[in-house]
Amino acid sequence: MSTDVGEDEIHILGYFLNWKKEDFLRQLERFQAARANRNQKLLKKLDDLGMRVDYREVRKLAPHGVISRLHIARLMVEKGYVSSIGDAFEQWLNPGKPAYVQKMKVSPFNIIELLLKAEAIPVLAHPFLSHRDDLIPNLIKDGLKGIEVYHSAHNPQRVAHYQRIAQKHHLLITGGSDCHGEAKDKVLMGRIKVPEILLIDLKKAKEKIRCPTLT
User: Fold this and answer.
1) Shared-domain flag, residues 32 and 14
2) CB 175 within 8 A of CB 198
3) Model's pTM, two decimal places?
């Protein structure tokens, strides 16, 4: 889940989420409504800039899911407005660019609380990209349980750095490629190798949540 601290974007992962929890579903509906409103404003800006991207066309790219800027960027490429998805973001859709629309901001501390109530294990995603290691102690105080050490943006030195932080604070370690399909053509599933013991540790942590009397 995408969150914000000032102008910095912080991503929080929720492992083993009980997505049927009513509080979680209600909050998710609020996020989806805010995103839908943002998308309409973004499409209006593109139209004003001479780039016609119809909502119905975008919806076809995500018939059963939430529309994101990535879907809009794909159509911009298909229509010849930009040469690549990267250009769509760098020239038009990123913060400070002509078609950017401010998203609804939410605190990582609130999201950690929401995930904990949904019986999930909250984990800080790709910390190097956030550049906010200073937040980690406070996030832990509010219930952060892990940190994504293995990531496509983490070279061996960064992996070692976040391993040390995880060990210092007794955090679970996770990893992932952060694959976004064609949006990141060099970041594919399977590129990042994660030791199996980390999954075992995650499962053990989840069992403790299910059976607190055994902790």
Assistant:
1) no
2) yes
3) 0.84
DSSP codes of every residue in 135-165 = GHHHHHHTT--EEEEEETT--HHHHHHHHHH
CATH assignment of the domain containing 205: 3.20.20.140
CA-based angle 189:195:198, to the nearest 5? Answer: 105
Q: Find tokens 């694959």 and name the residue.
A: 179
- The predicted-structure confidence for 41-76, as pLDDT tens digits, reads as follows 999 999 999 999 999 999 988 888 888 898 999 999
Q: Residue 164 corresponds to which amino acid? A: R
Q: Domain range holding 73?
A: 23-93
Q: What's the structural domain count of the chain?
A: 2
Please count the CA atoms within 13 angstroms of the CA of 165 that sit on its side-chain side: 23
Given 64, 93, 122, the domain boundary residue is: 93
Backbone phi, psi, residue 206, to 5°: -65, -40
How many Cβ atoms sit within 10 Å of the Cβ of residue 147? 25
